[in-house]
Each structure stands twice: as C-alpha cells, then as structure tokens.
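hiii, so i know i said id send this last week but things got crazy w the move. better late than never?? heres the sequnce for the chain we talked about at the cafe, plus the structure i predicted for it. fair warning i was half asleep when i ran it
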Amino acid sequence: MEQKFNLSTFISGIKEDIKELIRLRIEILRLETFEKASVVGSFVIYGLVIVNLVFFMLLFAFVALGFLISGWIQSMAGGFGIVSAFYLICLVAALLYHKPVSLWFKNLLLKELDSETEK
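okay and structure toks below
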C-alpha cells in the first residue's frame, strides 16, 4: 500500500520542529549567559578577596613603617607624615594614570572571560 503525501501534516510537522528549534536556541543562549555571569561573578569575588587581603597587609605594613621612620627621626608626627606623603603620591599617580590602569583591568577581565569560553 502506498501512503499518500499529506501537505498539511508535513507543514505542521515542520512548524513544530521550528518551534522546538527556537525554544532550544533560546535555552542554550540563556544557559550560556548564566555561565558567563557566573564566571564574571567568581572573578569579581576572587578579586575582591585578594584586594581586601592586600589592603590590610599594606595597611599594617605602612603602620609599621610609620613607627619605624618615627623611631629613626625621633618624631612620631614626622614618621607618619612621611608615610602619609607617600600615600598622597600614590593617590596622585592613581588619578593621573586612571585610564591606562582601567584599560588594563578591562583587558584582564575580557581575557579571563575569553579563556573560560574556550574551555
């Protein structure tokens, strides 16, 4: 027995397949977005932890340096003034070189994202 070709059934099947394909593509896009967001989130959290550790390490190191310089020059205000002047110089340098440093961090983040998507 020969089967008759039914055009409406064929078109209906193609229509359902296209709907399923679109649904799957949207799901893949959603999952890829979640993956990238989790990579960025973990990178940011890791960066914040490292920044906090370095901040407190430097804070205590500079307090110790202030006491050390104070002992050398026999002036508590002078020792901590020198350390404060160093902080001021670092602040001015950070403000002057904001764009290159910002660009470096952006490139670092993009490189990290790109390396995660290649895995």
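btw The helical segments are 7-73, 76-96, 98-118. thought thatd interest u
miss u guys!!
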